[in-house]
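User: Hey, quick favor. My workstation is busy. Could you predict this chain's structure for me?
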Amino acid sequence: QVQLVESGGGLVQPGGSLRLSCTVSGLPLDYYDINWFRQAPGKERELVAGISGAINNIQYARSVEGRFTISRDTDKNTVYLQMNSLKPEDTAVYYCFAYGHWGQGTQVTVSS
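Assistant: No problem, here it is.
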């Protein structure tokens, strides 16, 4: 059974940082792509960052490039999203997605 569990969200001031974690069970990250999405109130869910399984190719949305970094630890089967220089427009529920499965999401709020 595939399960994705996000953690690390919270309230942060503009310019601050957070690191999100997505721990995956039932799916070896060495071989499967995993992506971070986010959904702000009243908006469509959008792709934020992704990392491919076998070839380790990484992509970012233009709105977060240079501020967010996706990485993975295959020993812990966990993917991280390091978010720096956060802006109020980064406020959203962040989800990880892999092989047709979604996590439950973690709330990120950027506000002074």
